[in-house]
Input
Amino acid sequence: MTGLVGSLIVPRTAALVHPLLDSFSAYYSVYPAREIAALNLTAAHADTLSASLLAAMGALTEQDTEVSRLKAIRDLNAEKLLRRLRGLRDELGQIIDPLNPLWKAFGFNIPGADQTPESPLNLSAVVIGPGTAALRWDATAHAEYYRVWKRVIGLDAEPVAVGSPADLDFTLENLPAASTIEIYVSAVNNGGESQLSEKITITTH
Output
């Protein structure tokens, strides 16, 4: 009746905990003598927790929907901007010499010169779950995209590339548990790749 079938382990996900709270509420409603008010083991408290959890789940769903909507708008605007920048670059290519430093005034690399961007700065990482870390860093001038590197201490001899995002954030997943991991980011454009950023170190759960 409590919903704990075959195991006394309480689930970790909200979707599984919510029906369990309802089961406990029903159980204590049938057997009120077994309630322990001092420990909040009551039907009323189970109902309160159930309602709060349901509201939080609903709020999270709404927020996920809003984030998806805003991301779609951002991606659309970014694509429009990229098209305009490509048009500007093509137009400039008709009137500016490939080695003219004036390209930099428009925020472009000098097409005729091999130039690599600087290393990204202010790399940060937060462990957000088992085997998962969220990364962020500052934009690097003239970078077309970035490359994320990791080195698991005691496992990798050298940093290993794990992703090539165009954005300034990245989620590292499937990291080994209870491990110390060094993380780096490099910036890439058609002139080449920067040196690796300053390393940061995280420890997974």
